[in-house]
Amino acid sequence: MARIGVTGIPDPYHFFGTFAGLPFWGGGLTLLSAAPGIGKTSWMLRMLLNAAALGVPSALGCYEHTEDELKFRLSKQAEAMVGGPHAGVPVTDVEDTLAQSANGILLALDDKKDTIRSLEEALLKLYGFPEKGNALVLVDYLNRIPVVGLTGVQPVETRSGDAAIELREMAKRHGWAVLAAAALEADSFAGKEVFDLSDLFGDERVPYTADRVYVIARSGQPMPCGCVDLAIHTLKDRTGPVRNWDMQFWGARFYPDLEEEKDTHVTAMIVPALKKELVG
User: What is the pTM of this model?
Assistant: First the structure.
């Protein structure tokens, strides 16, 4: 039994890194929700690139896309890192940028057989993830994770709650930071500006189990170039105060441009135009 007067209590929310704008701590589960096509997978890929470049064991297990599709998006993100939203980039620069994150793991998963337990075992036994220690595990996405019950794989309406519980238990067991993409209810997709936890698809255990829940939504109409402003809504955060912030999504390069980088798109568009005008 713990006594209130004990001193020297370790911080259970000790953050070990900020990756693509989100701080992470060991043992926690974060859910990232959005309508289809908003950019949640791309944001997760940037987290992977960032964490791997800093030497943190990191992996993305994806039930949505093939390995080739994920690699293509990563190459486009490398172009964005070097050349901004639209400028041409030498292939060698893209390769050099990707090489910095070469230790990141991409896993194309099967929603009929690749359970959370099998993912955990692969990370431990095949990829050398720490039995106990800092690591980043990204899962895309929660509602397609197979959960096997007495009668076989559970239906999607109920499996997401069990999957969320299993992910958080895995996070606590190893001290890993786990983030999973999650689906929104269909009626939350269009024109909504205020969200709450009931907007997450699945049973009530999904938002209850997570330590943090974010929703990504479009803010305004897409720009002529295809880029779009995004608003990030915090629905729940056990680790600190709730905050909402803005990002951009460079659609042509599958790249989430972070809040502190918001001027890079304007610079990238204006400077070439000014140079062209001066030369002309």
Answer: 0.91
Question: pLDDT digit string (tens) for 107-120?
Answer: 999 998 999 999 99
CA–CA separation, 180 vs 213, rounded Å? 10
Give the architecture-level CATH label for domain 15-279: 3-Layer(aba) Sandwich (3.40)
Q: Which residues pair with 113 in a beta bridge?
A: none
| Phi and psi at residue 78, to the nearest 5° | -60, -40
At how many degrees (to 10) do helices 156-174 and 116-125 cross? 30
Q: Report d(CA 51, CA 102) in Å as an integer.
A: 11
Amino acid at 87: A
Are 215 and 33 in contact, with CB atoms under 8 Å apart?
Answer: yes
Q: What angle do CA 251, 253, 255 make, to 5 degrees?
A: 75
The domain segmentation of the chain, as residue ranges, is 15-279
Q: Which residue has the tokens 């007495």?
A: 150
Interstrand relation of 105-108 and 29-34 (parallel, antiparallel or unpaired): unpaired
